[in-house]
Design a protein that fits this description.
The chain is mainly alpha-helical. Helices cover 68% and strands 3% of the residues. The chain has a three-stranded antiparallel sheet with strand order 1-3-2. The longest helix is centred in the C-terminal third of the chain and has 23 residues, at 172-194. Residues 79-251 form the PCI domain.
């Protein structure tokens, strides 16, 4: 075996050993070194040179970047996830015909869809869906993300929250927790605008909590402006602290007329 390939394989074995014992700090350090060493392989993207060990090098690199994506989830680092996912993606697309299928491909593609949904990047979510094959769309990991997006768009928030109990892969739990917070924040914002106050029981049900304690903790951490007393949650204080923005009507009219005059000149 090529000495460089042997060295990278040995480094990766150390990385996996640290990953198993959940020493994620060591994993991060080793991953940085692995990425530098991978740059020496000309068979990898974007060059894709047909070297004697090309298939072995591509397979090893794909495995490394798959572990990098999962590590970013363990570290709860969404920026690292995005970087590592886009480094991994060419191995699923451009190198597809040169490598055997990876069992981690669909779980990771579904994880990326879930990330886009959590970040409310719906346009990119649908762009990624368009790139997937009909076989991929039938995979449970992909279907899970698609069904979540549909429930979210329909406002079926109870289905979104209950979906955490049926995640197709354990790495999905992190993003599902973030999505649950997004859902509750959305409901809370609507509740503030629709009601002056609610009973604790009604507020708990509306925000889809299972106990009053969860509601109280959420209020303390996320909405300290809410006033809770005598069995009720009062939103009026939140409304008073939110300044009303005046719409600059005259300015908008003048701009519109100006655009109309310019358009008339062009025509």
């Amino acid at each position: 075996m090529d000495p460089k390939l042997t060295e990278v394989s040995q480094f990766f074995d150390r990385f996996k050993a640290a990953f198993v014992r959940k020493d994620f700090d060591t994993c991060t350090k080793l991953l940085s070194e692995l990425k530098v060493k991978l740059t020496e392989f000309r068979s990898l993207p974007p060059l894709f040179e047909d070297t004697p060990n090309a298939v072995h090098e591509l397979t090893l690199a794909r495995d490394i970047y798959e572990h990098a994506v999962v590590l970013s989830v363990k570290d709860e680092d969404q920026d690292a996830f995005e970087r590592d996912f886009f480094q991994l993606k060419p191995y699923y697309t451009d190198a597809r015909n040169r490598l055997p299928p990876s069992p981690q491909e669909y779980p990771i593609l579904g994880l990326n869809l879930l990330r886009l949904l959590v970040q409310n990047r719906i346009a990119e979510f649908h762009t990624e869906l368009e790139l997937l094959s009909s076989i991929a769309l039938e995979n449970p990991c992909i279907k899970h993300a698609v069904e979540l997006e549909q429930s979210f768009m329909e406002g079926a928030y109870n289905r979104v929250l209950s979906a955490r109990q049926t995640v197709p892969h354990e790495t999905y739990v992190y993003f599902m927790d973030l999505l649950a917070k997004t859902v509750r924040d959305e409901i809370a914002g609507c509740s503030e605008k629709a009601y002056d106050y609610l009973s604790i029981s009604d507020a708990r049900q509306m925000l889809l909590f299972t106990s009053d304690q969860e509601l109280l903790k959420y209020s303390e951490e996320e909405h300290p402006e809410w006033e809770i007393k005598n069995g009720f949650v009062y939103f009026q204080k939140a409304k008073e602290t939110t300044p009303c923005k005046e719409i600059p009507s005259l300015q908008l009219i003048n701009q519109t007329l100006s655009y109309a005059r310019e358009l008339e000149r062009i025509v």
